[in-house]
Model the fold of this input.
Amino acid sequence: LGFRLDLPRAAIAFELKGFWDNYLQTLGSPLGEKEGLIEAKKRDLNQSLTSFFTKNQDNLVGYIGRDTFLVLKDLRDSAYERFGQLLSRHFSEITSSLKNVHITEVTLGVGSSATTPSGLIRSVQEALQVLRIGQKIIGGNQTHRLDSLGVLPLLLMGNDQQKKEFSSKLFGSLEDS
Done:
């Protein structure tokens, strides 16, 4: 498809509350108009990220249904931890252009960094899990990251592989046997 899958990327699930009910159903009655509105919102999402994160602009943006969009953010030459901190700290600046009369709230879920197709699938699953758990426990209109929610996503929805990776990461920093 012309997209590089060998770049480090992190999945970001964007929930635009009201997109389906208030935006697509109200403004996009004929199918052609709905497709145009979805494409326009995908461009808006990419623009909101690329205007703030000026490096690494090979982002993949897709609409996955209802109020949810998915971005596979290019992290080439960017540290994942720093990216996550900036995304959380500057959430309002990055997402303000996405809100309007129809879209009242924007919430993000961020998955871990990945460089393989299977890693990207895991990152997407994490982003969607973190989005849902963060909304239920903390609320909307902010960024939820796997590392900022602690063990909650792992305990509530994590699979065995995610649990093993989390425990390895947690206990890997201990040097005293």
Remarks:
- The chain is about 50% helix and 20% strand.
